[in-house]
């Protein structure tokens, strides 16, 4: 019989608890084993291992005792009844009720409080005000609380629940004085002998005014009814404009404000607060410089600059705002700016001979589309770059390059020489034809035969600048040809447009073309 010996490895982790200051004794204590009470640091557990807590200048056992302000009492009475605190006194919860630190005997099991009073919620309502104030009232018909007050809503209304202020209907307060709203109106603390419901007379600040004759501006002053407000004054729209808070007389309906003056819009404009002639001058954005047109001076944002000496650089920041910077030309014929990631490192250059690519200046003759290329080794086909294409013996066919030793280019389409020895060799499976609407006979135009390879290059075929057959690529059947001199007649039936995938039933096709003459 084998004996199995098991080894138990006990790992003890020692956690060091940082001491905290006890402000009452100005000493440090360990919160895991000590209490910081008003009178100093004491043990957190008694000699029996029971947890303690502070109670003014003493401690109590949390499990069996309660602390009522400064005194300690048992949680349970000798006969096992639970005790609770009512202020600094303990009481039996089954016998008494504590209302606002006042003990009251329970009556028929009622234990609802309203302030310091015990109430029956079936017959009494407790109205609550601010600062925890409460007041009991006998429940009545049409009655409602307003703070601690109780009022009849058919004869009175509550003006302030916070203050518990009740007023008779048709009464109100004006600067804390009660008044009759049928006879008086209150304008910001000032009473007038006009009914509050009279809409012809209303308030403008502390002033009462007649709305037929006047109007109120900014809630503080009145002006004639025919006028309009103009900051602290007024103006008459038929003959004046309000410019910068001042009334200015106008002579034309097209005049507009510019600062404190007027300008005539068809011939003049406003730049900030300055009037300028639009035929001879230009404003560099609102509030910017004003420059003379057709001179060396130009705008760069709000700032003007001499275009003979400088160029304007612009860049958008992360908030899509435009940043402007004027730099001095490095060469006299430079006319624009190349901006890298940091606008401070901008450079001037000539847009005629160079271009700006990713913040760097590149010679235009060294570009193929958007890519730099070497004219002695690379091949550029309609803006499409073929690296080392020239050096490796390739040539362009439309926008594609091809190997001239094994392929042939016909009308921007590349063929294998094993399938097509020359561009005039006919293949009768597919044909493309110039026709704008189908089916419709057309006895003129230029078309070309093509083989299966053409279908793989439909996009290039249509985009070619030299091929005129761009409207349809048609699949035809029963193709017959006949020649008369240099003219060849092609006859057959159209089956399908390979571009739109449209099919045709029994649509006859007939075309004539001139044979190529080499």
UniProtKB/TrEMBL annotation:
Keywords: Signal. The keyword Signal applies. Residues 26-159, 298-425 form the Galaxin-like repeats domain. InterPro entries: Galaxin-like (IPR055284), Galaxin_dom (IPR056601). It comes from the Eukaryota. Residues 1-19 form the signal peptide. The keyword Signal applies. PANTHER family: GALAXIN-LIKE ISOFORM X2, PROTEIN CBG12054-RELATED. This is Galaxin-like repeats domain-containing protein. The lineage of its organism: Eukaryota, Metazoa, Spiralia, Lophotrochozoa, Mollusca.
């Amino acid at each position: 019989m084998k004996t199995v010996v098991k080894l138990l490895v006990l790992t003890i982790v020692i956690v060091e608890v940082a001491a905290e200051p006890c402000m009452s004794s100005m000493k440090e204590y360990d919160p895991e084993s000590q209490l910081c009470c008003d009178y100093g640091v004491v043990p957190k557990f008694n000699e029996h291992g029971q947890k303690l807590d502070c109670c003014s200048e003493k401690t109590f056992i949390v499990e069996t005792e309660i602390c009522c302000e400064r005194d300690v009492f048992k949680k349970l009475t000798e006969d096992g009844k639970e005790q609770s605190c009512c202020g600094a006194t303990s009481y039996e919860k089954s016998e008494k009720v504590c209302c606002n630190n006042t003990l009251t005997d329970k009556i028929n099991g009622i234990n609802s409080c309203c302030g310091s009073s015990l109430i029956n919620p079936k017959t009494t309502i407790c109205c609550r005000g601010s600062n925890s104030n409460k007041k009991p009232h006998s429940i009545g018909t049409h009655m409602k609380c307003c703070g601690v007050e109780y009022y009849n809503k058919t004869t009175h209304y509550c003006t302030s629940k916070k203050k518990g202020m009740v007023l008779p209907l048709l009464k109100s307060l004006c600067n804390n004085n009660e008044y009759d709203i049928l006879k008086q109106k209150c304008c910001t603390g000032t009473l007038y002998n006009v009914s509050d419901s009279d809409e012809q007379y209303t308030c403008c600040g502390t002033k009462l005014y007649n709305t037929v004759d006047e109007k109120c501006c900014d809630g503080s002053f009145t002006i004639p009814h025919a006028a309009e407000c103009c900051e602290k004054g007024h103006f008459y729209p038929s003959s004046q404009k309000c410019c910068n808070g001042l009334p200015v007389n106008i002579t034309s309906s097209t005049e507009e404000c510019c600062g404190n003056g007027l300008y005539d819009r068809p011939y003049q404009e406003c730049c900030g607060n300055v009037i300028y002639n639009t035929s001879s001058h230009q404003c560099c954005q609102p509030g910017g410089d004003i420059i003379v047109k057709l001179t060396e001076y130009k705008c760069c944002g709000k700032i003007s600059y001499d275009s003979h000496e400088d160029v304007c650089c612009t860049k958008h920041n992360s908030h899509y705002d435009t940043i402007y910077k004027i730099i001095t030309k490095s060469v006299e014929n430079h006319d624009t700016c190349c901006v890298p990631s940091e606008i401070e490192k901008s450079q001037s250059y000539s847009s005629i001979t160079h271009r700006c690519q990713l913040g760097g200046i590149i010679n235009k003759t060294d570009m193929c589309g958007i890519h730099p290329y070497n004219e002695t080794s690379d091949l550029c086909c309609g803006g499409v770059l073929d690296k080392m294409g020239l050096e490796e013996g390739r040539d362009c066919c439309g926008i594609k390059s091809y190997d001239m030793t094994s392929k042939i280019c016909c009308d921007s389409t590349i063929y294998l020489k094993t399938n097509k020895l020359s561009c005039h060799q006919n293949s009768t499976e597919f044909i493309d034809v110039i026709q704008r609407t189908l089916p419709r006979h057309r006895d003129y135009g230029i078309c070309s035969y093509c083989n299966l390879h053409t279908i793989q290059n439909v996009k290039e075929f249509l985009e070619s600048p030299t091929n005129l057959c761009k409207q349809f690529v048609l699949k035809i059947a029963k193709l017959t040809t006949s020649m008369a001199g240099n003219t060849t007649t092609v006859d057959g039936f159209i089956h399908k447009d390979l571009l739109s995938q449209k099919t045709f039933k029994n649509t006859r096709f007939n075309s004539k073309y001139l044979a190529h003459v080499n």
